[in-house]
Design brief:
single chain, 350 residues, alpha+beta, three-stranded antiparallel sheet, 50% helix
Length: 350
């Protein structure tokens, strides 16, 4: 019984192992290559798959998802003989598991070496400044070459990125100095342009203000002249309508005399010669009125006291040797006497 039991146990174990090898479960977004007696038979897709145990062998499981592979920095020489270190990142996806298994031994290593050689060819035709400012051009060139070369390997390169471009330390210092000088230059230019614009705007504002001020003064002068002309016209019309005589003019002279002596700085004043004639006429008018008599009861009316006419204060004796000269009479000083035997010249008060 024991040998039979042992055989049964062995058969059960073999059957269990055969069952395990027969049923193959492939995860989603994965594929497996099946070989029969060392030859490719088929590709197992995601799900439950049945294979012949001990005859079919699952050689490789391949991930069909997009993969990201960073490559270490690679030294590359530019057109102007400068060495720069460039880090690259490749985004790829396996589209044909059979080709990725049998067309290339290691597609990761193949992609890396192809990336390095292609990058050296592209960077070698560009100078440092173009290399630093043409990332999109370099990415497009790398992607085109890699996609064409890896197509027969069952791999599609979706994207290529340059993670870092590191020029030599001395070049970095020179670039920083140049960039700092450019920024200082732009700042100085912008400051000068701002000051220039501010001065232009200020000058334009002052010009407009001067123009407006001049226009206002001109309009004010015109209005002032119109007002003075209207006032003179009104006074002239009033005098013409009132038919002023010599007595009214003499009275106006008397009212004007105190105005001539106003002010603390006035030490002397000159009386026009016409004042005397006007006062004589005014005195004669009052004398005639007193002689004719008046009043309500027919009695005599005393003539009001009229200030004596200045004894020709503005007249000077005609001296042929010295010539005419005005005599200044200070305020409060005694009036000079007039000699009737001498000739006197009238002096224009203007």
């Amino acid at each position: 019984m024991e040998p039979v039991l042992i055989v049964l146990v062995v058969l059960v174990v073999v059957a269990f192992i055969a069952l395990i090898k027969t049923i193959q479960v492939i995860p989603q977004a994965s594929a497996a290559i099946v070989e029969r007696f060392g030859r490719y038979t088929r590709t197992l897709n995601a799900g439950l798959n049945i294979v012949v145990p001990f005859i079919d062998r699952v050689r490789n499981r391949i991930d069909l998802r997009e993969q990201v592979v960073p490559f270490p920095p690679q030294p590359v020489i530019t057109q102007d003989n400068l060495v720069v270190n460039i880090d690259t990142v490749i985004y790829y996806q396996v589209t044909d598991p059979r080709a990725a298994t049998y067309e290339v031994a290691s597609y990761i290593q193949a992609i890396e070496q192809l990336t390095v050689t292609t990058l050296r060819n592209i960077i070698g035709s560009m100078d440092l400044e173009s290399t630093l400012t043409s990332r999109e051009v370099i990415n497009a060139g790398l992607r085109g070459v890699l996609d064409e070369a890896t197509g027969k390997w069952g791999i599609r390169v979706n994207r290529v990125e340059l993670k870092a471009i590191e020029p030599p330390t001395s070049i970095q210092d020179s670039m920083e100095k140049q960039m700092r000088a450019d920024r200082d230059k732009r700042a100085a230019i912008l400051t000068a342009e701002g000051q220039r614009q501010a001065q232009i705007l200020k000058a334009e504002g002052e010009k407009q203000a001067d123009v407006l001020r001049a226009e206002g003064e001109a309009q004010a002068a015109v209005l002032r002249a119109d007002g003075e002309a209207a006032a003179i016209r009104t006074v002239f019309e009033a005098i013409h309508d009132g038919d002023a005589d010599q007595k009214l003019l003499a009275y106006q002279y008397l009212q004007t005399l105190p105005e001539l002596a106003k002010g603390d700085s006035n030490k002397l004043w000159i009386i026009p010669s016409e004042v005397g004639d006007a006062l004589k006429g005014l005195g004669g008018a009052f004398t005639g009125l007193a002689g004719n008599g008046g009043g309500a009861n027919g009695g005599a009316v005393a003539a009001p006291s009229v200030p004596q006419a200045p004894p020709a204060a503005a007249q000077v004796p005609l001296d042929p040797a010295a010539g005419p000269r005005p005599v200044d009479v200070e305020k409060g000083a005694a009036r000079p006497r007039v000699d009737p035997a001498r000739e006197y010249r009238k002096i224009d008060p203007e």
